[in-house]
Structures are given as structure tokens and as C-alpha cells.
Amino acid sequence: MFQSFTKFGELEVDFSKFTSVKYYMYGFLIPILETITLARIYGVTAKLTNINISDFRNIRNWALMILSAFLFMYFHLKVRGINNNVDLAITFIFAIITLYLVGKFREVESADYFHVGWNSLALFFGR
Questions:
Q1: What pLDDT is recorded for position 8?
Q2: pLDDT band at residue 102, thresholds of 50, 70 and 90?
Q3: 65: closest CA among 99, 103, 111?
Q4: What span, in angstroms and rounded, lies between the C-alpha atoms of 53 and 71?
Q5: Can you list the pairs that 10-13 forms with residues at least 24 positions away whose Cβ atoms lie under 8 Å?
């Protein structure tokens, strides 16, 4: 899931030399920003289409969750360079769970904790 070299334009940064920076960025800062962005996209789109995000019996809500999760997965494919099908499938399922938490509790905090925990475990185990 995490590669040692991350490409920002033409610049390659080796985060293995900056472990404290790597753990802070990928274990805390980036997951919070990604979760907030994913939740905002989901919430704004739901508001524009009159979808109740806490109604999980509504097929339109599930369609919106799947579309948002697909965009999250596509982001990780293009920006992060994840091209392993298993990692992409896990990213998709992770986004569905995140959006479910956002809809169920109608807040982002629980989804943030989930994302920070997930990324921290991935860093800890070297994925």
C-alpha cells in the first residue's frame, strides 16, 4: 500500500530516511485530509441529489457510496500509484466502510479514527 518512493511531479521523495515525517504524514495528516475530502464529496453530492445519507435502505444512497468509493479508489490509482488489484479492492471496501460510518453517525470523527488507525497499522506492518 505504501511505497518507499512517492512521486510529486518530477520530484521523488524517499520517506524511509524521514521516519518521523513519514509516520506523521501517512499515519495522521493525510488520512484525516482524505477522510474529510471523501466525506465532503459524499455529503455535498447527497445534498444536491436529495439523498439521505443515513438511510441505508435507499438504493440511491448505496449508488452514491459506490460512486464516491470508486472515485477514492481512482484517486489512489492515479495519485498514489497503487496498481495492485488487491490493494485497490481493499481501498474500495475501505471507502465504503468509511462512508457508512459517516452516514450512520452523521459526523467524520469516527471515520477519521478508522482511517488513521488503518494507515498507522499499514505503516507499522510495512505495507
A1: 45
A2: very high
A3: 99
A4: 17
A5: none
| Cβ within 8 Å of residue 54, ≥6 positions away | 103, 104, 106
Rounded to whole angstroms, the Cα distance separating 83 from 76 reads 9
User: At 15, is the pLDDT very low, low, confident or very high (cuts 50, 70, 90)?
Assistant: low
d(CA 9, CA 15): 16
C-alpha cell at 91: 481501498
What residues does 23 pair with on adjacent strands? none
- Residues in the chain, how many? 127
Main-chain phi, psi angles of 80, to 5 degrees: -85, -20
Share of the chain above pLDDT 70, in %: 83
CA–CA gap between residue 114 and residue 101 (Å, rounded): 9
Cβ–Cβ contacts within 10 Å for residue 80, how many?
16
pLDDT digits (tens, 9 = 90+) for 17-55: 657 777 788 888 999 999 999 999 999 999 999 999 999
Q: Are 44 and 38 in contact (CB under 8 A)?
A: no
